[in-house]
Amino acid sequence: MIPFELEEPATLKQAIRLLDPDDASVRPIAGGTALMLMMKAGVFRPARLVSLRAIKELSAIETQPDGALRIGAMTPLSVLDRDPLARAHAPVIAQTLRTLSNVRVRNVATVGGHLAHADPHMDLPPVLIALGAHIVVAGPAGERTIAVEDLFAGYFETVLRRDELITAVVVPALGGRRAVYLKCTTRAVHDWPALGVAVALDLDGAAVRDARIVISAATEKPVRLAGAEAAARGGALDDDAVLRRVGDAAADEAQTITDGQGSAAYKRQLVRIYVRRALMAARDRAGVKH
Question: Between 105 and 74, where is the model more confident?
Fold first, then answer.
């Protein structure tokens, strides 16, 4: 690795001032699990890294007055996994984290870095999109909020400006919805997925009042499948024909890609199967008889 400056500001304002909107070689670093690999491989050669580790205000997990859960961007994934507020608020988050990489990575990687890196194979983004979460972003002009589903612009790309930082993730109250995340890997369960599927369903018995269906890894970025969601609404999850209809709609809609985890055609078939399985898993968690 080539030499670079390392800045360690103590406050969010100091960190933002150290970023440069016109220089791509100046980057913030959170856990650094992905960034360090990029640097070792020579993919990224920084002139300056701005460490966020000393900024204490970015590490809290708390419930807001409206029932939403606010997760500080510098919260390590392992801390989020064990946090009782997060487990009670949205159990699907902890369930997802148990198969995310390995414990060494989860001890270092942070929620904000996980999102800002924008790797389409990451596990949390589809879950947070299905839950209707948004991020809080700070920059020189102040704060703004971005829905997680609007954060990703493409393959390893976000809509964040170079002088902006994610400060928190806000997850609305789950209410009576049921949420599930499934992934298909080509090797071990904690490996990069060939496909990730997250669903959040509002059910009336077996009937689907509303649905959010999100896929990742098989596509250039995490995406909601509006056609599959429409196919699910009004259907009954104890009807195999409905499950097939939604799975087929998802496969028809998904713009899958070919990569090291499989071909586009293979992934399209995975979408068909795993969307159905995710709906069935949500149905079973809701106690719907079939």
Answer: 74
